Amino acid sequence: MSENDFYTPTDLDMLRMENELLAFEVRFLRARLGWPGRGSGSSPSLNRLAQLEEAESDLVLLVRRMSSSPLGPFLRLRGGFRTLEERYLSPEAQEASSRDRLAYLELAEQDLVLLLQRMGRGPLGRVFRLKREFRTLEERYL
Amino acid sequence: MGAAPSNVAVGHPVFYAGRFVHRVSDAVLPEGCELLGDWDVLPAQLAAAMERADTLVVLDPLSFPFEALTGTQQDVPLIVVLPSELDVDSLIAVFGKPVFAHLGFFDRVATPDSSVWEMLCRRYGWAEGQRVEIEGSRPEEAAQEIGIVLEAEAEAPKFFGDGSYEATRYWSERGAALAGPMPHRAICSVLLGSCFNKAMHRVQRTALEPQFAAARGARAEDIPFDILEVGTGIGRWAASFDPARTRFCGVDISEGMIAAARANFPERSFEHLGPDLGFPYEDESFDLVFSVTVMHHNPTPAKRTLLSEMWRVAKPGGRLLFLEDFVTGGWSEKSTVYPMSVLEFVELLLEATAGRVVLEHVESLRYPHDDWVRGGIIAVSKLGVPKKW
Lengths: 142, 389
Description:
The structure holds two protein chains of two kinds.
Chain A: H1 12-32, H2 46-68, H3 72-75, H4 79-88, H5 91-99, H6 101-121, H7 125-129, H8 132-141
Helix pairs in contact in A: 2-4, 2-6, 5-6, 6-8
Chain B: E1 12-18, H1 21-24, E2 34-37, H2 43-52, E3 53-58, E4 78-81, H3 88-95, E5 108-111, H4 114-124, E6 131-133, H5 139-154, H6 167-179, H7 183-186, H8 194-216, E7 225-230, E8 246-252, H9 255-264, E9 269-272, E10 286-292, H10 300-313, E11 314-325, H11 342-352, E12 357-365, E13 375-382
Parallel strand pairs in B: 1-2, 1-3, 3-4, 4-5, 5-6, 7-8, 7-10, 8-9, 10-11
Antiparallel strand pairs in B: 11-13, 12-13
């Protein structure tokens, strides 16, 4: 293959087998090096990914709940809340999440932490804390 | 074997005649071969000639710059013609470290003197099949005789069987046709050039030798180490083990291959495998049981039998080692490979051993000339309590 040629897969089966072999080797090396998942390497571990996915799902639920509450129209007066709605509830959110999944999930985790901090600090913080779900979120992310 | 790389160039023999170039130029050499004199091996010229070579015949080793062969040039198989004017001690003193110690299984030595050959063969652990037996001692005679050998190898049959691949018949026919007269063509690929096979062997050896050492572990050197190679062919891996410290046995379904293996390494033990593929050894007889590019040439039922037999004859705590192709293209009529992914193989291994193994090593291999990773090494150790103490 010359330097200017791109590798063109001609046999999907062969690619699948090669992928399986390399993935199997990586799994073995990770296990031998004692990397149960924490990101010592360049790629995040499965545990970390699961944690991020959970944060994203908590954030989506929280924003959706706030958006559909009687306070929704008032919250929408704030630019920050509108951004959260666009980012996590709009149809484009799905597309953005699949493009660069890891960056999207990390951003969701950061947004969730900021949102919880802001909600807890405000005058309504005590009211929110009366609800068990809010206390759980605070324990989990703050 | 399997999906052949598309970018393997098959070259031609290059004869280095050095100071004897004028004498050798009158000899009848194979059509298309190249003849080099001592002024033709300046670095750039030698590099260019090596790119076109599929075998390098060194008729004048005293003037050849062996140290100039680097990188992929070392994948060109050598045939070194020993100077008849030197005795064994002088040959060892002059060529021992720079040449003989680097000759591998795919390199050969040409000499008319059987006593010289035997002494060198024993000292450097060469196989009998690495000798090119010539009668003439003059370079032009040696060149002509070697030329005839190379021509015969180039015309060797490449296809066996009636067109459809059946492992036992195919390898029996191939062993009968090639193992005796041209052992190096009997193993590895018959379709691709000899450089390809030597390069493949180099990659396999580099990956396997640490695994052989790991299997031996910290065991004291005076404790015997028992090794079984399954699908041993002409016994090429026997040379990797010191006969003084190991008991090496090999089994193969081809009688022709076994005969060649016995001729290559008379001090080792080689047995023919019958159609039931049962090994002629007792349970728990070996510390290391291994196969190199064997499983993928067999259908699943045969693989299952071989795996159970390998597990049976391994000692508890002993090692099973496999170097196989786990990536292959689609089936073709010329293919001798049953495609098997690594996960399919591991599943089969767990099934055949009832899961009584521990994974010790996994390594993928990419051969020179290949655009993809296709080989893999899997080492497991056998769990269990010994039946006899």
